[in-house]
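ligand=flavin-adenine dinucleotide
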Amino acid sequence: MSVRYAFHQEHREIREAVAQLCSQFSLEYWDEHERDGVFPEEFYRAFADGGWLGASTPVEYGGSGLPISALAAILEEVAASGGALDACASVHIPLLTVPVLLRHGTPEQCHEMIPRIVAGELFVSFGVTEPTAGTDTTRISTFARRRGDEYVISGQKVWNSGALRAEKVLLVTRTEHRDEANRASGITLFLVDLDSDGIGIQPIPKISRNAVKSCELFLDEVVVPADRVVGEVGKGFSHLLTGLNGERLLLSAECLGLGRWCVEQSARYACERSVFGRPIGANQSVQHPITEGYLKLLAASHVLEAGLEAFEAGADSDQIGALTNSAKFLASEACYFAADQAFQTFGGYSFAREYHVGRHWAQCRLQRVAPVANQLVLNYLAERVLDLPRSY
Ligand SMILES: Cc1cc2nc3c(=O)[nH]c(=O)nc-3n(C[C@H](O)[C@H](O)[C@H](O)COP(=O)(O)OP(=O)(O)OC[C@H]3O[C@@H](n4cnc5c(N)ncnc54)[C@H](O)[C@@H]3O)c2cc1C
């Protein structure tokens, strides 16, 4: 039985269509792209041509206007296909800019960019993280200085995923120096062309998810027209938060997909592999951890569903924040648990690329760290749900 049907009944037709598209891309395709660090152009093209990039984008911008739960289902199926995060990142990164534009962009920016993003013609990377600020985004130091009708930007970003493939970056800058009394103010978002003079891009050698390279971005006096500001000058931090809950939900769905692949493969292998004259899956020490992984994913899927429902119903922001953060924590921990059990189940063969377990294991591990580390999720829940003192 596919683990998929134990979890979900909704968006079944969409799930089947996406799974069908993904089945055209073999495990070997993904292994090669991961190994060689090559962007999966064929998959990205097929996904965009199928209309999936625009699934939850409003119809007036070339999308299908489906609810976010449909996009979550789509990304879960992509993750579960064996493409793992190499596949997911290639299609979700450009979509991260869309909610920010829809909410805060000018009509001109929306009409210029969004139809191109959903058509797979415009890849935008997301430039938040800096080497010296880390998780504490208000400490970024990339600075945009106003000069007449333009801004001049200098600074450095790190882990900018997709920058080598992207035409633009949604860049988070400071336009005022940090004020301790109001740490989040003075941050401004820009859409910057990555071929501008003064930009250097350096890929970071990574241990995994290499099909979408992550890069250092160096900006030296980069001139950007003032009409490339997204939203209000100085309000960029709150604009960024706009997209955060949706991103957490989609990420959680990807975790479920990754975890499903691990559970399904573990169960299959445990039945097929015979040692001591019987399938290894006949041992409780093999079958129980696989089953426990399944249960953790099942529990996480219900919290994710509650988060999607609250989000779609426009529930109050505290309730949505609590559910999306809970889903992110539970789904990422569950998928890593399932991946680690897959590693144990496959024994020595988990180290052979041929079995694709190591690839999934490393990518599931990543989900506990990025785009937000699980300690920060616990910080949020401790403060906002349990009324504990703010710790960060
Ligand atoms: C493969 C990959 C792709 C990425 N892609 C992008 C991208 O496209 N765009 C982008 O902007 N960023 C991207 N990132 C960056 C990612 O969002 C950050 O790595 C992540 O937010 C953590 O930041 P950091 O690595 O600087 O950790 P740090 O902030 O240095 O933290 C290190 C550790 O300390 C913990 N810690 C720090 N402070 C606290 C505290 N107060 N309480 C409890 N624990 C704490 C953290 O949780 C973490 O475990 C990517 C990262 C990776 C690995």
